[in-house]
Structures are given as C-alpha cells and as structure tokens.
Amino acid sequence: MTTPAPGTPAPDTTAAPGGEPRDGGPSPGARVLGWARRIVLSTPVLAIGGALVLTTLVMLAVGVDPSLAYPALLRGALADGNLEYTIAAFVPTLGMALAFAIPLRACEFNLGGDGQMAIGGVTAAAIALHLPMVAGVAVVLPLAAAALAGGLVAGLSAPLRTRLGIPAIVTTLLISTPAVAFASYLVRFPLGEQGTGIAQTPPLPDATHLPALAGSSYVTIGLPLIALLTVAWLYADSRTVLGYEIRATGQNRDFARYGGVAVNRLAAVTLAGGGAFAGLVGALIVLGPPYRYVDGALTAPGYTFTAVAAVLLATARPIAVPFAVALLTVLQVGGQGMEREAGVPSQLTQIVQGLIIVIVAVFATVRHLRARRGAGA
Amino acid sequence: MNIFEASFLAAVLTATTPVVLAALGGLICQVAGVFNIALEGQLLWGAFTAVVFSHLTGSAWAGVVGAMIVTLVYAAVLSLASVTFRADPIVVAVGTNLLALGLTAFLMRQIFGSGGTYSSPDLAGLPTLAELGLDVPVLGSQSPLVLLAFVLVAVVGWWLRRTRSGLRLRGIGQHQAAAAALGLKVGGYRHGVVLAAGALCGLAGAQLALGNVTLFSEGMSAGRGWVAVVAVMLGGVLPWRVLLACLLFGVAEAVGFRLQGVGLPQQAADSAPYVITLFALILAGVAARRRPKEIS
C-alpha cells in the first residue's frame, strides 16, 4: 500500500478555516458562505451526490422512473410506521460500523463482519437456550459471551497478520465464509427447532429477551447500549493513550513502532475489539424480536457492507460515523420500501453504497495529493 | 471414493478453471506491483454479462466475448481510480466488489424479471471439447476454456520470463522509481495489467456461468475471486505455483462435493475450499518465516 487509505486518520486539518483570513474578521455573510462552500464541496457530500447521480442514470437506463423511486425510498424509511424499523436497523449497522472502524484506525481491514456476527449470534442463542438463567444476568451473559466469541473469531486474523504477514482483509474474509456456514449448521441441527423444517432455533426463554424501549415493538435497549459504546469509542479514540497509539500505528506503523508502541499487540487489540462489536451485534439481533436465531436473518440485510460504506464515507472522522450510518441506514431500509411500493429492486441501495466507496476513495486521494502539492509549493 | 476416477479429475478441473483464470489476472497485477482484490466482483460481473449476452444472442461464444469486453470496461473503474487518480486500490476494490454485487442483482431483476437464480433451456452453454471433436477422457467433458486456461498459464509464464514487455513489467513491480527513471511508462503498464485482469475475470466468469453450469445466480462467484487473490499470495509471481494453489482449491471443492454425497453436511462441504486455502496460506507463511531472509 503506497497511498494512505482514506480511512486512516488524516492530519487534523479542521483547525484551518478554508481560505479565510484568521484574524481579518470576515463579514458574517462571507463566513456563512465559506462554511456552505466547505460543506458542499466536502468529500462526503460530493460522494453522496455523485453516487446518487450515477444511480439515477442506472435507473433511467433500465427504465425506472426516479421521480417515483426516490420518494418511495424516503417514505419507506421515514414514514410513520417505518421510522421505527429504520431505527431498529440503525443499531446493528452502527455496531458493524464500529466493527470495521476500530481496526481501520490501525489500518487493518476487517471485512469478516458477517462471520463474527453469525458466531456471536449463535453463541448468544446457545447460551440463552441451554444455560439455566438467573434473572438479571440473563441478558448480560449471552451478550458478553457473543462479544467474546466475535472477538475471538476476528482475533484469529491478528497473528496471521503480525507473524505471517497475511493481510487481515484476506484472512477476515476467508474465515467469514466458514464461520457463517458453521453457525448455519448449528441452527439447523444441534440447536435447531425440531419438526418445523425451518432453519431456526426455538424461541429463546423470556428472561433473555432484550427489553423493548417504551412504546416500541422493534427498538430494544440495544439502541442506548450501542449509543453508549459508540460514545465510549469516540472518547477512547480521541482522548486516551490507547486511542492515540492506535491512530499513530494507522498513520505510520514504523514510526509508531520506533516510538515504542507495541504495534503487533495493537493489531490484535483492534481486530478483536472490532470482532467483539460484530459478535455483540449478532447477539442484539438474536435476543431482539423475533427472539430466536433465524438462519440468514443476520447476514441477509447486509449490515456489514452498509457499515463499511458508512465508515469510509465518514472519511476518517470518527464523530461522523454515526451520522453516515444513519444516512445509509435510511437508504438501506428505504430501499426495501421502494421495492414494495415502486417495484424497484432494493439492490439499488447496494449500488449506491459501492459507488460511494469508490468516489470517496478517489476524492480522498485527490485532495491528499493536492494538499501535498500545495504544501510543497 | 477413487480420486483417480475420471469424473473426479473432471470435477477438479471444473472447479479450478474459473479460479485459475481470475488468479492469472491477479498475478500479472501482482507482478506490476498492484494488489488487485477486485477479482471477486469482476468474476461475478463476468458471469452475469456472459449469461446476459448468451441470453440475448443465443450464442455462448458471444457470451464469452461480451463478458470479456464488459468486464474489461468494468475494470477500467479500478484502473482509472487507482492508477490515474492514485486512490487506494484496496478501498476502490472493496467498492467495486460491492457495486458488482448490487448491479448484477439489480440488473438481473430488470432483465430477467426475477431474482435468485436464472436458468432457461434457451440459454446457450459452452460446448464440451468432446462435442468439438477432442474426445479424450477427463478433458472431453470440459469446455474449451478449461484447455485455454492451462494454455494461458504457460503463455503468461513465457511472457513474463522471455519477452521484453514481461521483463519491463517485472521491473516495474520490483522498483517502480527505477523503472520510471529508465523511461518506462509505469502508469501505462499498470493500466494494461488491471484491464487485462478484468478481461481474464470476464473469461473466468463466462466459464463459471456457461461452462461449469448454464445459469446465473446472485453472488455465484461465492468467494472464488478471493481464493484467486490467495492463490497469487501463495504462488507469488510464478504462474505454475499459482496454478498449483488453484488446483488445491479445486481438489478441496471436488472432495467436499463428493463427501456431501456420503453424508457430510452441506455447510462443511461449502466451507472446505476456504478452510483448506486458509491452511495453505498459513503453512506457506510459516515456511517463509523459517527460510533465512534474503539479502536485499
């Protein structure tokens, strides 16, 4: 890798307002205009805009009317009955975003979220079904075990990366396929509900159900839990020694090593940490409605890659991750509404996500090169 | 189970061929110093376009050529972004892989009217070598692309070793700045290999969708592009070693398929190729660690 990944922490450039004299006291109007310019021309806005333009072209090329599709998409995500569902989908997507973002800060790619999530989910289901549950820890234990299991699955990639030099992007993906298959085997046979012919576990005992938030049937305490953990990550990333060392490793591995950072240990910590979030997401899905592990229900909605697109869209600003996740969740959930209402295949949202990633990658480097050229001149 | 049975060897060849073709694309990129992980998406895209062109024209060969051309054009996204705009090829490839998954599933519904799997008696598959007059055991049941894949392994090996452009390509991979200083157009060579890898993935996809079977199903590349990436990591820049790595995958898939017939769960059979590929990667890594470091 010769060019820095756009996900790696960029030098903090936010301190310099774009092109404005610092102490000249520009008129408020000019300042607002300057901010507007900076926002409109920022990489994420350009990437979303570009992706939507290209997607519209795809729609027109195959004879879909965008003026029907886009409103249907928005209604599908934000209309009264659907908003709750969008919020429910936001939780796993944000969790998977952390699963990808945490290792990415150390420049490790974790694309094996599906496998880590499936193993986490099946672990949670197995514990909820087969361990006698004490009230109180009945929810906590499966969640913790799932996080541990997801962390272990992702952690397998760490020694392969640090001792054998095999990129994590390859090993996480290669481990993911068998991991998903293994979870699928478990819910079909040893853990499966007998006599139904459907690949799912029996309903989990009531004590292990995640409490729903007041007045909602889909949104559980998973939402505040993930929100809390996200805040903890944001704090750890920007304000702690560990976060600093991770960022230093991501920016320049050799320099960090020279500075005394245990870079190999950090690779393991970040990969396992990311995997723990993926495992936790698996448990949150399984312990939430419909309160069982249904084969394919974890991986089919595509949380993992929606999250990857969101994290890359956030262009190395951790604070932007929740917002990017919210945006892409709206797109993803809205896509299903669009399919129901306007008959446009929901895979359209995958196209938008792919385009966003490509465009962000291009803009991030072009800007980086231009900034370097500007600095050199 | 007799592993020297003709039908078993045929199954190995069938499973190996798409991976070998994609891996050759990855190999030439590797030689030029480009880490190409976009093979998975391009393989899928090749399979889809092969079926679309075969469906539209009624000719399997039109499907093959169409898949090569369209996938080459698709690879131009990667080549433009990563070579011209110097974007991170890994991130761009993650994007194009996802894009291929979305586009093929979306267009499938628009063109064939349904998702999941498309197959039809009208869909022209590739002929077997036996039908073309080469009726020999094992190979006879294969498509001509299987033979072509093995020929291409030899051709790429010869090209890299024995020709001027092959030497230059290796030079670019070994020391980009030195190659540029000698006046080589580094960007041009890199564009060339990324696009050629696209065409090879188109060929691989055509073999997968019109040779191995005659259908398209969503996500049918099913990780083969990633296995090809691993094959290149295992084989380095030597085509015959990459071929061996791909054969390992082919054997694993064929054995898994056989064992499924005697009661192995389908999930285990599906995972076998990935688990075995991973173990090969680990063993190769351990072996490389044991070897004394080269003096550089």
TrEMBL record, chain A:
The chain crosses the membrane at residues 39-63, 83-104, 116-133, 139-157, 164-187, 212-236, 266-287, 293-313, 320-338, 350-369. InterPro entries: ABC_transp_permease. One of its GO terms (cellular component) is plasma membrane. The keyword Membrane applies. This is ABC transporter permease. It is a multi-pass membrane protein. Residues 1-19 have a biased composition (Low complexity). It is found in: Cell membrane. Keywords: Cell membrane, Membrane, Transmembrane, Transmembrane helix. GO terms for molecular function: transmembrane transporter activity. Its main location: membrane. Residues 1-28 are annotated as: Disordered. It comes from Nonomuraea cavernae. The keyword Cell membrane applies.
Automatic annotation (TrEMBL), chain B:
It is found in: Cell membrane. It holds the Pfam family BPD_transp_2. CDD domains: TM_PBP1_transp_TpRbsC_like. The chain crosses the membrane at residues 60-83, 90-112, 142-160, 226-251, 271-288. It is a multi-pass membrane protein. GO terms for molecular function: transmembrane transporter activity. This is ABC transporter permease.
